[in-house]
Amino acid sequence: MAKEGAPRGHWPEYLIEASLLGAFMVSALGFTVLLEHPASPLRALLPEPTVRRALMGLAMGATAIALVCSPWGQRSGAHFNPAFTLAFFRLGKIEARDALGYVTAQFAGGVLGVLAVSSVLGALVAEPSVNYAATRPGTSGVAAAFAAEAAISFATMTVVLVVSNHARGARLTPLFVGALVAAWITFEAPFSGMSMNPARSFGSAAGARLFDSLWIYFTAPPLGMLLAAELFVRTRGRLAVRCAKLHHENAQRCIFRCGYRAA
After folding, report:
1. For position 212, what pLDDT does the model report?
2. Is residue 105 part of a domain?
3. Which of 116, 163, 127 is nearest to 18 (CA)?
4. CA 117 – CA 108 distance, rounded (Å)
C-alpha cells in the first residue's frame, strides 16, 4: 500500500503510538501491583518468584499481542518502542519526521501511562516491591544488564524481521512478539528487569525518580535492534524489508514506505 498523506497529516498515528505505550504501562503497573505488592492475595499464594515472573510474562505478552492486533495497533504499526522505530528508520521504511513524531509520542505515552496509574493506585505503585515497575540491573551487575538488554533486543528484532517478511508467516508476527515478551520477562528479567524499550523504562524511572541506570535502557535496546537491522540488510538486502508495521493483514492506511501489498 502506498504511503498516504504528508507527515504533517500523520498526527493520528503519533497519538496512537502514545496511547499504545500508555496502555502497556497501565497493564505493566497493574499486574506488578497484583503480583508483587505484599498486601496482594495473589502474592501470598505465589511465594516463588519464577512463578510470578512467568505469570507476569504471560500477562504482558498477551497485552502486547492485544495492542498490536487492536484497530489502533493495526493503524500505527504498533511500535510503541523507540528502538523499533529507529531500527525501521535505519531500514529506510520511515520518513525522518515520522520517526521523530513516533519517538516523541512514545516517550510522552510512557510517562502519561505511569501518571494515570499513580493517580488511581497512589501508594500501591510507590511501594518498594512495586516501585513503578522500574527496570533495574539485577544482582549480576550493570555489565550483565547491558549485555542482556542488547541480546534480547537483537533477538526480538531479528525474529520480527524474519517473520514479518515471510509470505506465510507475516500474519503471525504479533504472536511471536507476545511469546518473546513472555519468555524474556520469565527468564531475562532477573538480569535487567526486561525492558527492550527506552520509553517504557523512562516512564517508570520518572515515576520512581530513579535515573542512575537509565542509560542502559537508552543505549542497549537501540544498539541490539540496530545491529539486527544491519545484519538483516547485509544478508537479505534492503528490498527484503516490506514495511515497518507489525500487523499488515488489515485495511488500515499505511504511512510508511510500504512494499507489503506489492509483495
Report:
1. 94
2. yes
3. 116
4. 15
